[in-house]
Amino acid sequence: MSASILKSVAARRTVYALKPEFPANFKLADLQATVQAIIKDTPSAFNSQGNRAVILTGETHKSVWDSVVNSIDSPDGKKRPASVRDEAVSSIIFFTDDKVTETLQEQFPAFASAFPSFADHSSGAAQITTWAAITESGLGGHLQHYNGYVKAALGDKIPQNWTVQAQLCVGVPATPAGEKTYIENPVKIFD
Amino acid sequence: MSASILKSVAARRTVYALKPEFPANFKLADLQATVQAIIKDTPSAFNSQGNRAVILTGETHKSVWDSVVNSIDSPDGKKRPASVRDEAVSSIIFFTDDKVTETLQEQFPAFASAFPSFADHSSGAAQITTWAAITESGLGGHLQHYNGYVKAALGDKIPQNWTVQAQLCVGVPATPAGEKTYIENPVKIFD
Fold first, then answer.
1. Residue A96 lies inside a defined structural domain of this protein
2. Based on the structure, what is the number of domains in chain A?
3. Which positions make up the signal peptide (chains A, B) (predicted)?
4. Which residue ranges in chain A fall short of pLDDT 50?
5. Please, what is the Cα angle at A85 between A83 and A90, to 5 degrees?
6. Which domain holds residue B109?
7. pLDDT confidence bin for B1, thresholds 50/70/90
């Protein structure tokens, strides 16, 4: 019975220790095709397709994360973005196009208050599916939320109405993921 | 290069025309195992694991959706929940445990305003991954948001602090999914 997607989502883990490179048989163009497919196929309220993504790599990746590091005062707070700058080969930036949400709110005023949450559902699915997909391809990564800093660093490279939702920071795993703990969380049947 | 999850997410579609049965080689216990695995493996902010789910089937499924039908006045508005009541074999109800979000907000006050959105990201991933998984298993389905009505119908079967996020209504597809249109939505590389 077991759907193949279950293996894929079970293999996805937070991996912080990264080398700034792609696996031997996986290139930047493959990453782009992967993210493009997921952005296309992730469902959205009324098929509104409000997910957006860009891929940072090379000099832009370094300069955006250097800007995040420099925007944070505390030495401890600088550590994570500095590790992304120095150890990740790429970051996938996920956005929601607020214009899409606002148009839905105008078209369907009865559900206006629900659309921001629906946009978040769709964004989360795109983020986490991408994380599972890159894991299948031999990359590892971790999901970060330096949303305001990243938005400021990207400046006019992206439309003003794109809100940053998350950064998936990826590279070749340098060490495996650590242990993960799970709560008791039974899915009951009401018959 | 292509990760198997890409095929799975591309195959997931909205299917409204359902027969109230499971595929020959897929049982209610398989659905439960599928949802349980996804609830377990879907990541969450600080591994807070705030996703919850229950599976409705049989008499409870019928009575909950009948209650939704009866809560809506307009004949047109009754049509979708009536079709779920009569044509879906089961509904998976996704919740967020608000206590988990509130605890995070107390522990990390600097990110307090972000945690509801993070909970939505995680919930959306669980919903949409489940949708892809049941599609792989020969079921079809559609995602609904009669959240308040469903919460009222479930009453004290679920804790008060579980907020309903979505209902994935499933059955054996009676007719294939219709055409889907896509916008131009390029994922650019910033190098």
1. yes
2. 1
3. none
4. none
5. 110
6. 14-173
7. low
pLDDT digits (tens, 9 = 90+) for A20-39: 999 999 999 999 999 999 99
How many CB atoms neighbour CB B49 within 10 A? 20
Question: Is B186 part of any domain?
Answer: no
| DSSP for residue B25 | T
Tell me the pLDDT tens digit for each residue of B39-58: 999 999 999 999 999 999 99
Best of A34, A73, A190 to disrupt the B interface by mutation (most B CBs within 10 Å)?
A190
Contact A122, A45 (CB under 8 A): yes
Position B184 in a domain: no
Q: How far is A69 from chain B (nearest CA, A)?
A: 18
A139 neighbourhood in chain B, CB within 8 Å = none
Alpha-carbon torsion angle B74, B77, B83, B85, nearest 10: -70
Residue B10: name the closest of A124, A133, A42, A129 by CA.
Answer: A42
Instruction: Phi first, then psi: give them for residue A72, nearest 5 degrees.
Output: -110, 135
- Tell me if the pTM is above 0.90: yes
Backbone φ and ψ of A55, nearest 5°: -115, 120
Show Cβ contacts of residue A171 under 8 Å, excluding neighbours closer than 6 positions: A18, A19, A20, A21, A87, A88, A89, A90, A139, A140, A141
Cα distance between residue B104 and residue B82, in whole Å? 39
CA distance B55 to chain A (A): 5
Which CATH number belongs to the domain containing residue A91 in this structure? Answer: 3.40.109.10
